[in-house]
Amino acid sequence: MIPMIDWLIFATLLLIVGAYGVLTSKNGIVVLMSIEIMLNASNVSLVTFAAYSSELHGFNDTMGQVITLASITVAAAEVAVGLAILLVLYKRYGTIDVTKMNFLRW
Amino acid sequence: MTTTAEYFAVMSPQIILLIFALICPALDLWLKMRKGIAYWTLIGLAAVGIIETLALIPETRSLVSFLFWTDPPTTEVFQISAFSQLFTIVFIFVGGLVAYASPPYIRKEKHHGEYYALLLIAVTGMSFVASAADLIVIFVGLEIASISSYALTGFQKSVKRSTEAAMKYFIVGGFSSAITLFGISLVYGAGGSSNLAQLGTLVTVGGALEPIVILGIGMLIVGLGFKIAAVPFHMWAPDVYEGAPTTITALLAAGSKKMGVAAFFKLFLVALLAVKADWDVVISIVAVLTMTVGNLVAIQQESVKRMLAYSSIAQAGYILIAIPVATDYAVAGGILHVITHAAMKSGAFFVIVALTVVGLGETMKDFTGLNKRSPFLAFSMAIFVLSLAGIPPLAGFYSKFVLFSSAVFEASGAYSWLIWLAVAGILNSALSLFYYARIIKSMYVDKGESTERLPVPMSIKIVIAIALIATIVIGIYPEPFLSASLGAAEALNNLLPIGL
């Protein structure tokens, strides 16, 4: 069996990749995808903790998997609203480059 | 044995709000009367407000997880207590004021039905967080409220800055949600339960998993810090507050921010209380930074809307004092400040709504000589900013007094540094008076270009009057509000599970 720490390192790396994407990319769609990667990092970590709960705490706990289901649903809703906002943004600014938005002082 | 119907009766306020929200878009289609939807929204909010205030439930009731039908039920996810009721009433109060002030402000926009539906859903999400007894409900509640606020922020699709504010709010909000969820996953993994009260006993000092808990605490402070706009995670707030429609700014400052505070209280004062030594210094530093930076930057602002946004950041710093002090009295002070801040800050934003509706702007210039043009608006704005600065006998003074004095009471022995929180708070209140006095001076002393009377719509006047009465009444008769806050603080302490 793969040790738990490997999964946690994988989740942390995913989170860092996602955060890097949010902070550096210009394209609005890429930012959206990076946020999704960050949410999925949390999902990996939640499922890992649920799967290894009998080793960690001595009892079986499935709540982590339930939280993951809820967070997948939430992520879908978030993408829908995000894409709608990007669409309006494209109509208004003619671009989805998030660094071009400086009407308000950032 | 509790039946399914009884489980859902606990959730009835949220279910009622959702039903009213889902009917709003249909009303827009069939009813040609725009104001009708606002009244419909108000009816829904009032119904829930009456349930929450009149049907005060003596003992705590909870919704046991129906996802795993075990017998006896072990995981509870949802709990009604004095804490959740008080916070839900605050959210409903703010939501009602916003709904009633909105028709004149958004009259040029389309899709009124969706506006009120999203408003109701945002209030539902906030009350979910207030009633949460489980990590999953906190996360889902935060997201329900945040996602509808993103859409509401970008509601004025024809206005460039509204769209831009929505985009910024969406990126920062999504980023912070992801970090919060990662923090939740680490706390859940280290504790082995997602129930807040069980976590309170399972997460302990010196365990083998404490490094994971500390990492989780860091993630939660960052993620929730973004949600309540604490320094250094505040960069988004002024832009979003300035760009959003002003009625929605009132909702964000007085509602969304309070939801983050409720989540902070639930996570740190229930689930992570045993490891208080790991986070109290960090949160104290964040609190002091938040109030200082908020006030310092507010001084330089020319736009009053942006100045109020920075002052709202500073107010969040005052509320954060309650968390490291962590006594019932301090938490009561924090909750009382949530109530008073909801009244005075939303009132100040509604004055800006009134000025925008009559065709003026939101800069300091538009406030010049306001006393001659509309004595009522000038007087209300003066009361709101004086209360924000903490001048007795107004509401802001009393809640700040409770907060700061609680820090002084606790400051002894190893915790003698808590006194510096009170000192920082008092110095910051003095500092904030500087820019609040500027508004008052320009309204009362400076001569404006015009002395023409302003035709302020009746509904906005009523909303401002309600906020004004709340600000003055809480200041003069604080006892009932303080005892309600103390009850809520005790309820937060008594958040205990069934099977433990």
Short description:
The complex is a heterodimer of chains A (106) and B (500). Chain A is mainly α.
Q: Could you give the count of β-strands of chain B?
A: 2
Q: Most extensive interface: pair and counts?
A: A-B, 48 and 44 residues
The number of helical runs of chain A is: 4
Side by side, the strands of the main sheet of chain B go: 1-2
**How does the overall form of chain B come out from the CA principal axes?**
globular
Characterize the overall form of chain A.
elongated
What is the succession of H and E elements of chain B? HHHEEHHHHHHHHHHHHHHHHHH
Structural class of chain B: mainly alpha
CA radius of gyration of chain A: 18 Å
Counted by DSSP, the helix tally of chain B is 21
Give the integer mean of the pLDDT values of chain A: 90
* Assembly annotation: heterodimer
**Alpha-carbon distance between the two ends of chain B:** 18 Å
Beta-strand fraction estimate of chain B? under 5%
* Radius of gyration of chain B (Å): 22 Å
Summarize the amount of helix of chain A as a percent range: over 70%
> Biggest β-sheet of chain B: count, sense, barrel?
2 strands, antiparallel
- The count of DSSP E runs of length 2 or more, i.e. the number of strands of chain A, is 0
Distance between the termini of chain A: 48 Å
CATH fold-level name of chain A: Helix Hairpins
Low-confidence stretches of chain B: 66-73
